[in-house]
């Protein structure tokens, strides 16, 4: 038995004690992932209005659109709100166990399992043979704000979604349902979500473990990799001050996430498009020098034009990101990553956008196991409104 295989039964998947809010207004509580709609201030203003004066995860997260807006004050307020919610008894703690999450989306019902993962088994640098790996390159300058929130936080709220490769659907087939924990419509067009306690979490954990001994990775971080990376960095800072026994049980070692089978029929892969906010969009189009047998679409002022692009999508995205970096250096401007075709077309009136092709989801695990991390922001699991909403929490102190 290899060292990696010996870890499987004891670690990797962790059965947590999940916290849920005690509120009658789950519509106001649940909030979309913080890294969505980063160029759409009106979206987050509406969320803020929904949450105003109410118990809401909005008061416990840092939307990335505000990363340049008095960051120390925002982070301090988030941590204070977490402590206040705990002292007021806002949360109830469930017995150790998983939650089956069923999310109704335009493509059907996407099923996931909220569980804990061992950060000792996770790597975000794209090297080695970790059992939990990032899918895309980690943007290191995006980590400090998330680390700053987490290092003084008593709680974590996850928007992380990890993927697993289960063509026979063995994991979900092993789930036995207990009581329904929540069942409500999500705000801001997020669809509907239902959470059910899993009564046989130990057996479900065994089903996960059986997926991996043939080699490779068990989980790929599909969404929220930067949050998972921040959790890893915080754990690495805590670990040296603990003895061997404490290291095994410390709550910061384990991160909460939702695990989704990559073959789930309602799990859709969408490209993450590029937006360049610039006053020189015509120069961007004229300077396009990316070659290939495939195609991308440049959008300028709402008008579309096809441009060459490699059929090897990750290779093409690396070329595109290099071109955008050189363009911004020469002409000024700012690059952003946009989820959704319609959102990019609307925002392209502020500059120029590129609609990039998508990768096929069945190619994801082989691509990562063969070549490591994909380029940053290569794909998205669904459109922006389909991202995981903050609902559950877990103590990390």
Detailed description of the structure:
The protein is built from 13 helices and 22 strands. It has 397 residues and is an alpha+beta fold. Strands 1, 5, 6, 7, 8, 10, 11, 12, 13 and 14 form a ten-stranded mixed sheet that branches. Strands 15, 16, 17, 18, 19 and 20 form a six-stranded antiparallel sheet that branches. Strands 2-4 form a two-stranded antiparallel ribbon. Strand 11 and strand 12 form a beta hairpin. Helix 4 runs parallel beside helix 5 and helix 5 crosses helix 8. The radius of gyration is 21 Å and the shape is globular. It starts with a helix and ends with a strand. The N terminus is likely disordered.
Distance between the termini: 34 Å
> Which stretches are poorly predicted, pLDDT < 50 over at least 5 residues?
1-9
Residues in helix, % = 25-40%
Principal-axes geometry comes out as: globular
Which band does the percent of strand residues land in?
Answer: 25-35%
Structural class assignment: alpha+beta
Main beta sheet: 10 strands, mixed
**Beta-strand segment tally:** 22
Number of helices: 13
Mind telling me the C-alpha Rg?
21 Å
Mean pLDDT: 92
């Amino acid at each position: 038995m290899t060292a990696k295989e010996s870890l499987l039964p004891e670690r990797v998947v962790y059965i947590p004690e999940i916290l849920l809010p005690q509120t009658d207004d789950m519509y106001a509580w649940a909030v979309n992932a913080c890294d969505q709609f980063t160029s759409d201030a009106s979206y987050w203003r509406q969320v803020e209005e929904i949450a105003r004066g109410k118990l809401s995860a909005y008061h416990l997260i840092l939307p990335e659109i505000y990363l340049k807006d008095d960051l120390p004050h925002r982070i301090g307020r988030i941590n204070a709100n977490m402590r206040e919610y705990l002292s007021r008894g806002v949360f109830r703690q469930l017995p150790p166990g998983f939650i089956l999450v069923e999310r109704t989306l335009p493509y059907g019902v996407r099923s996931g399992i909220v569980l804990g993962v061992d950060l000792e088994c996770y790597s975000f640098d794209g090297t080695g043979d970790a059992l939990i790996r990032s899918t895309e390159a980690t943007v290191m300058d995006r980590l400090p704000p998330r680390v700053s929130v987490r290092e003084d936080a008593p709680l974590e709220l996850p928007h992380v979604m990890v993927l697993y490769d289960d063509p026979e659907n063995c994991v979900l087939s092993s789930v036995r349902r207990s009581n329904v924990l929540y069942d409500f419509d999500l705000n801001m067009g997020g669809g509907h979500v239902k959470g059910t306690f899993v009564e046989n979490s130990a057996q479900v954990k065994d089903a996960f473990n059986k997926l991996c001994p043939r080699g490779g990775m068990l989980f790929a971080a599909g969404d929220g990799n930067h949050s998972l990376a921040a959790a890893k960095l915080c754990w690495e800072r805590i670990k040296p001050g603990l003895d061997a026994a404490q290291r095994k049980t410390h709550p910061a070692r384990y991160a909460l996430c939702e695990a989704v089978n990559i073959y789930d029929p309602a799990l859709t892969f969408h490209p993450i498009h590029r937006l360049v906010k610039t006053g020189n969009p015509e120069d961007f189009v004229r300077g396009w020098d990316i070659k290939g047998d495939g195609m991308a679409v440049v959008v300028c002022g709402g008008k579309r034009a096809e441009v060459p692009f490699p059929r090897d999508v990750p290779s093409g995205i690396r070329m595109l990101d290099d071109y955008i970096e050189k363009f911004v250096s020469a002409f000024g401007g700012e690059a952003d990553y946009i989820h959704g075709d319609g959102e990019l077309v609307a925002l392209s009136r502020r500059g120029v956008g590129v609609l990039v092709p998508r990768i096929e989801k069945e190619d994801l695990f082989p691509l990562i196991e063969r070549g490591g991390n994909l380029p940053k922001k290569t794909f998205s699991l669904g459109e922006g409104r389909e991202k995981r909403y903050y609902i559950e929490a877990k103590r990390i102190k």
